[in-house]
Amino acid sequence: MKKNILTIIIMALTVINVILTAVVLFSAVPAMNRTNNLIKKVTEVVDLELESDEQSDNNAVSITDRENHQFTSSAGTLTINLLNSEGGKEHWAQLDSVYVTVNKAGEDYKNLVKNLEGKQSDVLTIVSDVIGGMDYETVSTKKDEMRIEIVKKLQEHFETESIIDVSFDNLRFQ
Fold it and tell me: What is the rounded CA–CA span in Å between residue 95 and residue 124?
């Protein structure tokens, strides 16, 4: 008799275990799948926001369609005072020349090249204003953001989308 009662208890516990497993399977798994889908959508949106339009446009232009225009200061090197950081120490940036990369396949390429020829001071002023508006820590850690900001300002100033990149010759910070 004791063996039969023990067998019945084990069978009952096994049936309860199967029922609880089924409940968990049908209630918890769909909730976890919805959560995973939500997380996946959020990460996709974050990835889209991390890619900037300027970088994708820049990468879409063939190397044969790129043309660099060099702008140098009449003094040879351009020295730019940076914003004072919290410590109060003065910092500066110095560069030998600025290269503006233009898309030769752009619609307004010819007009842009004509405009760029006599506008060396405008380009150097925009570069100075953007770099000078940042402190040492920002400039030294966020160079790509600085370049993107300069490209945006140049595009606004010259009213064109054909300016795709900017680079510097011998850029250094102190």
Answer: 11
- Residue-wise pLDDT for 34-45, tens only, equals 898 888 888 777
Question: Angle at Cα 20 formed by Cα 18 and Cα 23, nearest 5°?
Answer: 110
Residue showing tokens 């619609």: 107
Return all residues near 83 (Cβ < 8 A) that are at least 6 apart.
132, 133, 134, 135
User: What confidence tens digit (pLDDT) does each residue in 133-146 have?
Assistant: 888 888 878 888 88
Could you tell me if 94 and 145 are in contact, meaning their C-beta atoms sit under 8 angstroms apart?
no
> Do the bridges between strand 97-103 and strand 92-95 make them parallel or antiparallel, or are there none, so unpaired?
unpaired
- 59, pLDDT greater than 80: no
How many other CB atoms sit within 10 Å of the CB of residue 83?
15
Rounded Cα gap, residues 137 and 174, in angstroms? 11
Burial 21-37 (b: 16+ CB within 10 A, else e): eeeeeeeeeeeeeeeee
**φ and ψ of 163, to 5 deg:** -80, 120
Does the global pTM surpass 0.85? no
